[in-house]
Specification:
The complex is a heterodimer. By secondary structure, chain A is of the alpha/beta class. Chain A is 55% helix and 11% strand. The longest helix of chain A has 33 residues. Chain B has 25 helices and seven strands. Chain B is globular. The chains are: A alpha/beta, B mainly alpha.
Chain lengths: 425, 550
């Protein structure tokens, strides 16, 4: 009897967690009107804002020049590119200086911090920004030339303080986990982030994010001690009631690549999880005015850990229902979370189809198969990263673990280098 | 304060409008909101009151109590009493959701007075189902872009056809399944085209199928409706979601059997497989248009009550399917028209078994397509081939023609339906049953030790009178078909005290040796009613040793 009650209670909690997550994940597709509203609206032709684009680069001499050239092709009339290099990284600095010599719109700022990380680098560059809006990109990003014009229009037509554009991992056929990783980004930027914007609590992404310069300075820039400074900035700004707008257009997303090895994915995920944990403990989200917003914040920042727990508990629960002798009614309750997980799976399959359609990629049967079969293993990976994050945070280890990148999304030659990546859970 | 971007306002990429949903406007949401339209609410409310009055008045006494009603209500009673899904072994004859719902609906009344748990008094709860279905049909009609008057007409057809009045009063699973199906259609045609509305439509459809499995054949029409009412950009998510939801809920039935170890046949237990096999191999009742077959008889019994709805509805469906290319109404009503077509084709299977309640699941769709057909005709008369300035006389002529048509239709329908309604609210068809129940309640000295074969409709009455459920008061056919019962009757009919020979018992006894012998070796103690409808209480010869007459 007690077992039954316990199992039923656990099942119901898991069910609600899974159901809420699914509900939010499917936000963009709720109605055709919602889907239409997630896109950039068409620019009216006028341009009013000037941009300062931050480009932190560390040991990225191989790709940096390409990224700068592509940014310079932007159709917008008024922008500067500030490349931030470390004082101990002469190769990258060399590439940046050459680019600056070629084009007056490019400037170089040197970061002299002894221990380096991305928030410190960007804070170093912040005083040098002359534009109305600060934008952040990573050294390996492929940015669409029309993006700035659209962002400009979005700022002016909505009165936003922050505009978050879409970021998308593209190399879904590199490995089984890259498939799931791509899809995670797809659901996050395509759908879930819009819900966060609507609800007034948003963890921002690490790049393709644009903030009004005065707002950013007022907020004292990025938190140099946080492992997820992007998420933290979003939480702090939305807690202060700043207006955040999210827009996703498949032809205007910033394209990125998945980490090259399973280990680097694990490290990357560990860092985000640890960062989310830090943001949670900073308690800025407690200033959110509405109870619902605070609950959403609490839940979102805890997600990596809840996800890890439910990934283990849901199958366990179903197994208990099948193999232990519980009443049929209780057995049905225990299947609820599994059923919800299955529905999520089905929507992921449909999402993969949509992803292929949006990006003109050929998704084959084998990919769907990988998606389904890889699901449980990916859960294990996420759970591992969550455990690792808690462990590292307990031990006070909050240094940056860098992950190596292969330029798999770049059509040009393959390059290997050390870099870091950002964005969501 | 944060928000997403406002919807794109340029010419492209605005959520497209589709022909069936032409009443909706994209950015500001649907123009048609049932809840906030006073005219709709008043019309629907008035019609609902009329339907409830006609269906509810005299509900216990007309029509004659049916054996099936007794079956489902008794099983609902078993659920309430915690005796499992049936008081005899549940053998997967139907999915149990139907009488679980009846158990829920009758739960509170039966707490107030357990003796109300009899077929006659519990028919009242079917009024709730009828009311819900009637409102849903109005909403559905409006969502399928029918004008207000046509939606009202559909509601009237559905609720006041004499055939509906008779069938919807009875405690049939089909009535509950119809409610779920209508809900599924309403959600499928949701003006906001919301992902979770479509998901809900899948759940409602599964509930319908689990209530009465024959609803399975309607699912393709539901799918078509959903397809037409979803938007290109979100369709794949909406439809996949709906199908997944439906399959998930639907699969809970085999899962239930699996958990009980009764999915596949085996010795010593019932199984879902056996249940399905029984339903699929039921002896056919012949081709519906062959005079003399069982199916023909069933058809005639429907047409006896009403010709307008079944025949008019079929004609309406045909009209809509034929004019699909030209008529907006026909395209809007594609789902219901397809449903009628599917159900008609299934009924035409020469080898199939056609039960009397089969038509129940078609009633709402017949009503919708008949109303839609009427709307189509009226539109054609008033508007077709009208361009620009038309001569006043011609316009007047159009209106005269429309009025004449409407009056002619009313002159044909109203007297017939009035008669049907009058019969329904005045006839007392169940006096013999009530008298038999009273006699067995008051005149048998020792009910606890008395064993009596009855049909299912009387069974609960006798349970309340103190007879032992299951082995004391016995569903007559269990005396031949349920091993758990026959093993308590080693001497066959000699182990019984009474048999209540109702029309159903006499009809089915032909194939049931124990029941047949009990009838042969018994003499009537008392008879209620006359002719074929009479109910005899027959005492088994030499049964005086146990239960006696007071």
């Amino acid at each position: 009897m007690l077992t039954s009650v316990f199992i039923a209670a656990v099942s119901l909690v898991l069910f609600w967690m899974a159901a809420f997550t699914l509900w939010w994940q499917m936000h963009a597709w709720r109605t055709p009107e919602v889907l239409a509203s997630t896109r950039f609206s068409r620019p009216d032709g006028g341009e009013g804002l000037s941009f300062s684009l931050l480009l932190p680069a560390r040991h990225e001499q191989a790709v940096l020049d390409h990224t700068i050239q592509r940014l310079l092709e932007s159709s917008h009339a008024d922008f500067e590119i500030i490349v931030i290099v470390g004082h101990d990284d002469p190769e990258t600095a060399e590439v940046a200086r050459k680019a600056a010599a070629r084009d007056p719109r490019v400037r170089v700022v040197v970061d002299h911090h002894e221990k380096k990380n991305k928030p410190k680098a960007m804070n170093t560059a912040l005083p040098h920004c002359t534009g109305d809006v600060v934008g952040v990109f990573d050294a390996e990003d492929q940015v669409h030339p029309e993006l700035l014009a659209h962002v400009d229009h979005a700022f002016r037509s909505t009165g936003a303080d922050v505009v978050q554009g879409g970021v998308q991992l593209i190399n879904f056929n590199s490995s089984w986990y890259s498939l799931r990783n791509c899809l995670e980004y797809f659901f996050w930027f395509r759908s879930r982030l819009h819900l966060h914007a609507q609800k007034g609590f948003i963890p921002l992404g690490g790049n393709t994010v644009f903030v009004r310069t005065d707002v950013l300075r007022e907020a004292d820039g990025w938190d140099p001690d946080c492992l997820a400074e992007d998420c933290d900035l979003g939480v702090r700004l939305s807690s202060r009631g700043k207006k955040v707008v999210v827009a996703y257009d498949s032809d205007m997303v910033t394209r990125e690549e998945t980490p090259g090895t399973l280990m680097s994915l694990l490290k990357q995920r560990t860092r985000w999880n640890q960062g989310f944990l830090q943001v949670y403990r900073k308690k800025d989200w407690k200033q959110l005015p509405a109870f619902g917003q605070r609950m959403l914040a609490r839940y979102t920042l805890m997600t990596p850990f809840l996800q890890a727990a439910s990934g283990v508990l849901i199958p366990l629960n179903a197994a208990i229902a099948l193999f232990l002798d519980v009443p049929v009614g209780i057995a049905f309750v225990t299947f609820l979370p599994a059923v919800t997980a299955l529905v999520t799976f089905v929507f992921e399959v449909v999402g993969l189809h949509d992803f292929g359609k949006q990006y003109g990629l050929r998704v084959r049967f084998i990919h769907y198969l990988k998606l389904v079969v890889g699901g449980p293993f990916y859960q294990v990976l996420l759970a591992g990263a969550a455990v690792r994050a808690v462990w590292r945070e307990q031990r006070g280890r909050n240094d940056w673990e860098l992950t190596s990148h292969v330029g798999a999304h770049l059509t040009a030659a393959t390059v290997t280098r050390e870099s870091r990546e950002d964005v969501p859970a | 304060m944060t928000s997403t971007l406002p919807a794109a306002t340029s010419t492209s990429s605005v959520p497209a409008q589709q022909s069936p949903a032409h009443e909706t406007t994209p950015a500001t949401g649907p123009a048609l909101r049932f809840r906030s339209s006073r005219a709709d609410l008043i019309l629907c409310g008035v019609l609902l009151a009329a339907i409830i009055t006609v269906q509810g008045w005299n509900i216990a006494d007309y029509p004659t109590l049916s054996d099936d009603e007794g079956t489902y209500l008794a099983q609902a009673w078993a659920v309430q009493e915690g005796r499992g899904l049936a008081h005899y072994t549940y053998w997967y004859d139907h999915p149990p959701l139907g009488w679980i719902q009846i158990a829920l609906l009758t739960w509170i009344p039966s707490l107030i007075n357990p003796e109300w748990m009899t077929v006659g008094s519990m028919r009242t709860v079917m009024l709730l189902i009828s009311a819900a279905s009637s409102v849903l049909i109005y909403v559905l009609a409006r969502r399928l872009a029918l004008p207000r008057w046509a939606a009202g007409l559909a509601m009237v057809f559905f609720g006041l056809s004499p055939l509906s009045v008779v069938l919807q009063r009875e405690i049939f699973l089909d009535n509950i399944a119809v409610m779920w199906t209508l809900l599924a259609f309403c959600l499928a045609a949701s003006p906001s085209r919301h992902l979770w509305h479509h998901f809900g439509a899948g759940i409602a459809a599964a509930a319908a199928v689990l209530t009465k499995e024959t609803m399975l054949v309607v699912l393709p029409a539901l799918f078509v409706t959903m397809w037409r009412h979803s938007h290109r950009d979100t369709r794949k998510f909406a439809l996949t979601g709906a199908v997944t939801a439906c399959a998930m809920i639907g699969l809970s039935y085999p899962l239930f059997a699996l958990l009980k170890g009764e999915l596949f046949p085996g010795s010593g237990h019932v199984s879902l497989w056996d249940g399905l096999e029984y339903q699929m191999t039921r002896p056919g009742s012949g081709f519906i248009l062959d005079a003399g077959t069982g199916s023909y008889g069933v058809l005639q019994s429907w047409l006896y009550y009403d010709r307008v709805l079944p025949l008019g509805g079929l004609a309406g469906a045909l009209l809509l399917l034929v004019t699909f290319r030209w008529s907006v109404t026909a395209r809007a009503l594609a789902g219901p028209a397809l449903t009628v077509a599917i159900l008609a084709l299934v009924a035409m299977r020469p080898s199939g078994y056609l039960p009397a309640m089969y038509i129940i699941q078609a009633l709402p769709f017949l009503a919708l397509v008949l109303a839609g057909g009427a709307a189509s005709v009226v539109h054609a008369v008033l508007r077709r081939w009208r361009r620009g300035e038309e001569h006043r006389y011609l316009t007047s002529a159009r209106y005269v023609l429309a009025t004449v048509l409407a009056l002619a239709a009313a002159a044909y329908v109203v007297p017939r339906w009035y008669d049907g309604a009058r019969t329904a609210v005045t006839t007392d068809a169940n006096a013999p049953y009530q008298a038999a129940s009273k006699w067995l309640t008051t005149r048998v000295a020792d009910p606890v030790d008395t064993r009596v074969l009855v049909d299912d409709a009387l069974w609960l009455d006798l349970v309340h009178a103190g007879y032992r459920p299951g082995l004391g008061v016995i569903w007559f056919y269990k005396a031949d078909l349920d091993p758990a019962v026959t093993k308590t009757m080693p001497d066959g009919w000699r182990d019984l005290d009474y048999v209540v020979a109702s029309p159903t018992v006499r009809r089915d006894a032909v194939d049931l040796p124990n029941v047949k012998q009990a009838l042969e070796h018994s003499t009537p103690v008392v008879t209620f009613g006359k002719g074929d409808d009479r109910i005899e209480i027959r005492r088994i010869d030499g049964a005086g040793t146990r239960g006696g007459t007071r």
